[in-house]
Automatic annotation (TrEMBL):
Residues 59-401 form the Aminotransferase class I/classII large domain. InterPro entries: Aminotransferase_I/II_large, AON_synthase_class-II, PyrdxlP-dep_Trfase, PyrdxlP-dep_Trfase_major, PyrdxlP-dep_Trfase_small. This is Aminotransferase. Keywords: Aminotransferase, Transferase. Its cofactor is pyridoxal 5'-phosphate. It comes from the Bacteria.
């Protein structure tokens, strides 16, 4: 289904929309365009997968996993998890506000806060809940939030649920932010303005001019929140994320990062000053009324942090080397990509062929993800490759050969460049 058809569906009455979307799903299954994406075995650069059209699993190259540092199946991490199960069991038994908060939770929160350059932090079950947490715990209808138009769905949904007045802006054009902040201040001089942007953007792995953004926010006394879900472990000299990468540690008021991507586990955290984190601990419903992380998960996160901090192995450096290698090779073969610094490489496609192309790649033995409308604007469909530190050059060359083969079949290499995004350079 192309972007035009999807836009038309959005305008239909509910029952008609559901019927047509479900019929479209059945048609896609019959034509072989949809993957069931049912995996078997540990997360790795090669995995067994089964789709909707077969009862048999097949081995595929995996270039669609967020486990950038390969921690999900690391022997050291697994050993620490097993030890935690033997010592603590498998569940926390309650929410952090009641019985589900332990010495291990507190120590991990302190460790994550230190890593983020903040005083304190709270743990949440995932990135979606973490974004709900800070919106729900800090803002009310008397405040205003200005958000990055590329923000994750969790941020946008949280804002709408809270009922706080909101405005969006284009982070690639900060000239549009200043008049917006001036207008808000002129109309409501005493209102508290919040603003959030992504660090490493999930759709293309790019980073905005964060220094310029923070300087402008400081001028207008804006409370800033950085969504660095994809930044932790993938950018920065030691993997501390976007703020380290740009030498801006301590410059944001709040930071959200996940433990489910580079750290290979589950959960997320929000870090900030003692006062702001106090507000979240006591007044944020997504934190107060959600079961605390299980002890084995805490052990997995701690073990992954040990790996992240191991400068002798330096998986962050290996990830960066793999990303540069794959970017160079894709450009050499004529693909239209954006060169970011993270583990995400977007490969632009012609409108309307993303699902067909991705299905063909899977048939040939390559698992990757696609980004299409409404995740990206119409005409900016892309194959999103996720690079891991554990990918070998042989695996990257195999993936490249398959992408080139399918691109030639679909005529992708004839596509014109879609966009050019200026990258924030490391300090």
């Amino acid at each position: 289904m192309d972007s035009k058809t999807l836009i038309e569906l959005e305008r239909m009455p509910f029952k008609e929309r559901v019927a047509k979307q479900y019929q479209f799903y059945l048609d896609e299954v019959e034509q072989g365009y949809l993957n069931g994406r049912e995996g078997h075995g540990p997360v790795a650069s090669k995995m067994q997968y089964k789709d909707l059209h077969s009862d048999e699993f097949k081995e595929v190259l995996v270039f669609g996993s967020n486990s950038y540092l390969g921690c999900s199946n690391d022997p050291y991490v697994k050993r620490k998890v097993c030890e935690a199960i033997e010592q603590y069991g498998i569940g926390s038994g309650g929410s952090p506000a009641f019985s589900g908060y332990t010495k291990q939770h507190k120590e991990l929160e302190q460790r994550l806060a230190k890593l983020a350059g903040h005083e304190d932090a709270v743990l949440l079950p995932g990135g979606y809940m973490a974004n709900l947490c800070w919106v729900n715990g800090l803002m009310n209808k008397n405040d205003v939030i200005v958000y990055d138009k590329h923000s994750h769905a969790s941020v946008i949904n949280a804002i709408k649920m809270t009922g706080v007045p909101f405005y969006s802006f284009d982070p690639d054009n900060l000239d549009t932010l200043r008049p917006l902040l001036e207008r808000i201040r002129r109309r409501t001089p005493d209102v508290q303005i919040f603003s959030t942007v992504e660090g490493v953007r999930s759709i293309d792995g790019t980073i905005i001019d964060l220094a310029g953004y923070l300087e402008m926010c400081q001028e207008f006394e804006v409370i800033t929140i950085l969504d660095d879900a994809h930044g932790l472990g993938s950018v920065g000299k030691t993997g501390k994320g976007t703020l380290e990468h740009l030498d801006l540690m301590g410059r944001v008021d709040l930071r959200m990062s996940t433990c489910s991507k580079s750290l290979g586990a589950q959960g997320a955290f929000v870090s900030g000053s003692k006062e702001l984190i106090f507000m979240l601990r006591n007044f944020s419903y997504p934190y107060v009324f959600t079961t605390g992380l299980a002890q084995p998960t805490i052990a997995a996160i701690n073990a992954a942090l040990d790996i992240l901090e191991d400068r002798q192995e330096d998986r962050v450096g290996q990830l960066h080397a793999n990303v540069r290698y794959m970017q160079d090779r894709l450009e050499q073969e004529g693909f239209n990509i954006i060169r970011g610094q993270s583990g995400i490489i977007p490969v632009f496609l012609k409108d309307g062929i993303a699902r067909q192309l991705n299905r063909r790649l899977y048939q040939l033995g390559l698992f990757a993800n696609i980004m299409e409308y409404p995740m990206v604007p119409p005409g900016l469909e892309r194959l999103r490759l996720s690079i891991m530190s554990t990918h070998t050059k042989q695996e990257m060359e195999q993936a490249l050969a398959l992408i080139k083969q399918v691109a030639n079949e679909f005529g992708v290499l004839e596509a014109e460049p879609k966009e050019s995004i200026k990258q924030a350079e490391p300090a």
